[in-house]
């Protein structure tokens, strides 16, 4: 499953160090698309260009404060993820809570970075997340899985499974989707891959793949979606540095 992407990574690594301004322009484009699509999947109505304008510090008339905060917060969360990668910090619950705290900052400060104390359902999904009293134990088990069984997996599959397991626990009242996609890219970036973008137009495919993983333990569709989107990012890099 991973032969082609690993070949592309080897080719990309052979070109390092990459041109400074090429890297800067790709990073800005990817972070914009990542922010726009991750928010759009969750119902944010800002367009790609409106998202770009908000990131530049301009407000959009007719759009809610929450939609503006979702853009700014996601940018700050990406910056935090990049800092984790730069500092080679080990994965932890503390990191997860910090990422979530940034995602919900100013939107729902009471629950930002705090596990939920109420039962929730995932709209449209067959899978029902665990009750609140089970969350702490399941999040601890997630870290144990990551350090044990997860460490033996191919990095891309490990990143995909981290997302799947986290969403299945659904540990927060709100912001689980954005946080899960930040965690997925955190794991990819820690292993030398660029971030990938799950696009809003693929949200039905994305949700169906997740629900299949949670209800049947078949993670193939989700892993293939991650691989498909990551391939697009790799091709973007390789086409620009030819």
TrEMBL record:
Residues 91-228 form the Fido domain. It comes from the Bacteria. It holds the Pfam family Fic. InterPro entries: Fido (IPR003812), Fido-like_dom_sf (IPR036597), Fido_containing (IPR040198). This is Fic family protein.
